[in-house]
Specification:
The protein is mainly alpha-helical and about 350 residues long. Helix content is about 70%, strand content about 0%. The chain is built from 15 helices and no strands.
Length: about 350
C-alpha cells in the first residue's frame, strides 16, 4: 500500500471497530464536517451577470497550471480519496443511513418533484419572456414562450411528458442555431432532463439505465465542463468580484477563481461516483447554489432552479451502485480532469482557431 494512505486506512479500521451506537451518533456530525470542508465558491453563472466572449482566446494552459492551481487541486483530490475510503466503513454507512432518514419522506416523490420543478421552471421562463433556456440565451421569437408554457402544461399528465421532453430538445436546438455548439455545451443538463421526462413518461429504463441516472450524469458532465470556464476565462468574473469583494472570501482573485473551478469540478465528478460521494457532492452543490441566490437574486434563483431540483433527486436517491475500489479515485480523478480540459481547449481551438499553449 502506498505510504501516504496508511493513516486513512488506520482511521477506517478504527471506524469498523466502533460500536454501532457510537457510529450512528457520529454519522451526521461527520457528514456536516465533510460538507463544511469544501470552500463555498460563489456559484452564480457568470454569463448571466457580466460581459463574456465565448469565441475569445482563453488563458493558455501554462498560465492555468501554476502553483495556485495545484494547491487546491491536491487538497480536493485528497478529500475525494478520503471520502471514498470512508464509504465502506461503519462511519460511511452511518452517514448514508442519516441521509436516508432525513430524506425518506421525499424519496418516493422524486418523480413528482422533477415534474413540478420542470413545470415551475418553464412557467418562470414563460413569464419573464425573451429567454430560451437560461438568462443569457435571448430570443425575440413569440413562439418560444408558447412552447415553454406547453412544456409546463405537459407535466400534468404522464403521456404528455414525452411531448414536453421533445419541446425541451427543440429549445436546445434553437439555442444551438442562435449561439453555436460550444456555447450550448454549457447546458447538456437540459438534454438529460428531456431524457428523464421521456423515459419517465414512457415508464422505461433504456438499456437498464434508470432515468434518474441519466439526469445525474447530465448534471455531472454539465458542471465539469462549466468548471473549466473558471480557469479559462477568470476575467469574465473579475467585474463581479470588484463590485463585491466579499465574494472572494478574502483570497486573491486569481487564487479564488482557480480554487472555485477545482471545487466545482471535484463536486461534479463526485456526482458520477459511488453513493456516499455523489450524495455528499449533491448536498454541497445544493448549498452552494442556494447561497448564490442571496447576492445574485431572483435571476440566479430561476436560472439554477432546475439543477437544484435534479440535485435534490440525487441527494435522496439510495439506489445501490457498483462499488469502486477507493484507490481507483486516484486514477479516475486526474484522468477525468485531463479529458475535460483537453476536450474543452481542443474543441475551442477547432471551432474558433484559438491557441492552447
Amino acid at each position: 500500500m502506498v505510504q501516504p494512505l496508511w493513516w486513512p486506512l488506520r482511521f477506517l479500521r478504527m471506524s469498523r471497530s466502533c460500536p454501532p451506537r457510537v457510529t450512528a451518533r457520529l454519522a451526521f456530525p461527520i457528514a456536516c464536517l465533510l460538507v463544511a470542508g469544501w470552500p463555498l465558491a460563489a456559484a452564480a453563472h457568470v454569463k448571466w451577470f457580466a460581459p463574456y466572449d465565448v469565441p475569445g482566446q482563453p488563458r493558455i494552459l501554462p498560465e492555468i497550471f501554476k502553483l495556485m492551481f495545484w494547491q487546491p487541486l491536491s487538497a480536493a483530490l485528497l478529500a475525494f480519496v478520503l471520502t471514498c475510503y470512508l464509504e465502506p466503513s461503519r462511519v460511511g454507512a452511518g452517514i448514508l443511513a442519516a441521509l436516508d432518514r432525513f430524506s425518506r419522506w421525499l424519496r418516493p416523490r422524486v418523480d413528482d418533484l422533477y415534474r413540478a420543478g420542470t413545470a415551475a421552471f418553464f412557467i418562470a421562463l414563460w413569464t419573464l419572456g425573451g429567454i430560451i433556456l437560461t438568462p443569457e440565451l435571448k430570443t425575440s421569437s413569440p413562439l418560444v414562450p408558447l412552447l415553454q408554457l406547453g412544456i409546463a402544461i405537459g407535466m400534468f399528465w404522464r403521456p404528455t411528458m414525452v411531448l414536453s421532453a421533445l419541446g425541451i430538445v427543440v429549445l436546445y436546438a434553437i439555442g444551438l442555431w442562435n449561439y453555436g455548439l460550444f456555447h450550448m455545451l454549457d447546458y447538456p443538463i437540459f438534454l438529460g432532463l428531456a431524457a428523464y421526462l421521456a423515459c419517465s413518461g414512457l415508464e422505461i429504463d433504456p438499456f437498464g439505465v434508470r432515468p434518474l441516472d441519466i439526469a445525474r450524469w447530465a448534471a455531472g458532465l454539465t458542471l465539469m465542463w462549466a468548471s473549466v470556464e473558471k480557469w479559462a476565462y477568470p476575467d469574465w468574473t473579475y467585474p463581479l468580484l470588484r463590485n463585491d469583494p466579499g465574494l472572494a472570501m478574502g483570497f486573491y482573485v486569481d487564487y479564488y477563481m482557480s480554487a472555485a473551478g477545482v471545487v466545482e469540478f471535484s463536486l461534479a465528478l463526485g456526482l458520477l461516483w459511488t453513493p456516499l460521494v455523489r450524495r455528499l457532492s449533491a448536498l454541497v452543490l445544493i448549498a452552494m447554489f442556494a447561497a448564490a441566490i442571496v447576492p445574485f437574486g431572483k435571476l440566479d434563483a430561476i436560472g439554477h432552479s432546475m439543477i437544484i431540483v435534479i440535485l435534490i433527486g440525487i441527494l435522496v436517491d439510495r439506489e445501490p451502485a457498483i462499488r469502486r475500489p477507493p484507490i481507483s479515485a486516484m486514477a479516475y480523478y486526474p484522468a477525468a480532469l485531463v479529458a475535460t480540459i483537453g476536450l474543452y481547449y481542443g474543441l475551442h481551438a477547432l471551432i474558433y482557431g484559438t491557441a492552447i499553449w
